[in-house]
Amino acid sequence: MIRACDVADLPEGEAVRILAHVPIAVFNAEGAYYAVDDTCTHQDASLADGWLEGCLVECPLHAASFDLRTGEPTCLPAKRPVRTYPVLVTDGVIYVDTNVREEVA
């Protein structure tokens, strides 16, 4: 488990980037926390710098969009999903379990 940040430091609609084996973006989307690989699968861009609408994040480079719950792309130009990670909130701290990675196709 990697400590991402305090709950108070990640307001709704915002994201934070953490470093693990790869960069990971942690989002507060509609009061739920999600973690995905930070790099867009279409081209190297930080999803933490993207635009969040509900549970979808739009890449800041070419507007590819991903569902934070599944990692699946919802529109072109991205065709491959981003990896997702379990998130745990304990005592007001957000943790990402980088040991349990959902494999992407």
Report how far apart the termini are: 24 Å
Q: Main sheet: which strands, in order across? A: 2-3-4-9
What's the shape? globular
The structural class is: mainly beta
Whole-number radius of gyration? 12 Å
Largest sheet: 4 strands, antiparallel
Count of all domains:
1
In CATH, the homologous superfamily goes by the name Rieske [2Fe-2S] iron-sulphur domain
CATH topology: Rieske Iron-sulfur Protein
Range of helix content: under 10%
Text of the CATH class? Mainly Beta
β-strand percent reads: 35-45%
Helix/strand order: EEEEEEEEEEE
Could you give the count of β-strands? 11
The unreliable regions are none
**SS field, number of helical segments:** 0
Descriptive report:
Helix content is about 0%, strand content about 45%. It is an all-beta fold and about 100 residues long. It has one domain: 3-layer Sandwich (Rieske Iron-sulfur Protein). The strands form 3 sheets. It has a 4-stranded antiparallel beta sheet, with no helix packed on it. It starts with a strand and ends in a 9-residue tail after the last strand. InterPro entries: Rieske_2Fe-2S (IPR017941), Rieske_2Fe-2S_sf (IPR036922). Keywords: 2Fe-2S, Dioxygenase, Iron, Iron-sulfur, Metal-binding, Oxidoreductase.
